[in-house]
Amino acid sequence: xxxxxxxxxxxxxxxxxxxxxxxxxxxxxxxxxxxxxxxxxxxxxxxxxxxxxxxxxxxxxxxxxxxxxxxxxxxxxxxxxxxxxxxxxxxxxxxxxxxxxxxxxxxxxxxxxxxxxxxxxxxxxxxxxxxxxxxxxxxxxxxxxxxxxxxxxxxxxxxxxxxxxxxxxxxxxxxxxxxxxxxxxxxxxxxxxxxxxxxxxxxxxxxxxxxxxxxxxxxx
Length: 220
Prior knowledge:
The protein is of the alpha+beta class. It has a single domain, classed as Spore Coat Polysaccharide Biosynthesis Protein SpsA, Chain A (Alpha-Beta Complex), CATH 3.90.550. The chain has six helices and twelve strands. The protein has helices at about 20-30, 45-50, 70-75, 100-110, 180-185, 205-220, and strands at about 15, 20, 35-40, 60-65, 85, 90-95, 115-125, 135-140, 145, 155-160, 190-195, 200. It has a four-stranded mixed sheet. A two-stranded antiparallel sheet has the order 1-2. Strands 3-4 form a two-stranded parallel ribbon.
C-alpha cells in the first residue's frame, strides 16, 4: 500500500471518509459483539488513539513489538479469549448480502463440536473492483479444501471463527495461521460459508481508489 502507508497504518485508510478499522468495528457492534482485540505494530499509536474512546465494542490492544505473523499474533492475545472467537484482517472490507448480517450468519452456523475453524469464502467470479484469488474449493457438506495452485472457485476473505484449542502445541513466537487451517482441513474440521455480499481486499493504492469511488457513488 506504499506510499500511502508511509504516514499511517493500513487499517486507517479511508473509504468514503470512513476508515477500514471503524467500518469493521461498526459491523462487529451491529452483530452484537461487545469486545474486540486489535493487534498493533506499525504506527501503533495512531490506532491506539483512534479506538481509545470507543465504547462498543470495547477494544483491547495487543501490541507486537516484534511481528508475530498471522498465527503468532493471535496466540499472543489468546489469554483474552476463553471461547470461540471471530478473526478479521485489517485490509478487508465487506457489505452484507441478501442473507443479512454475515457475522450473525456465521455465528449461527458455528458448531464447535464438529468444527475447529469456519471460514468465509468469496466467489472469485464476483470480484470486479479488486483481484480475487482461488484459495479454496468447498464440498457439498460444507468442508473447505485449499487449492495449492490457486485455481479454486473461492477466495478466503480472512473472516473466520475459530476455537482456541487449535493453538495447542503451536510454537512460541511467529508462525503462520495457514498451518492451523491446513491442520483443520486434514482432520475434516475446516468448514466454510459462501458470502453473498461484497468483499474487497484492499492491498494496493489502486484497490483503495477503486473501492472508494464505488462506495462514494453508492453513498456507503
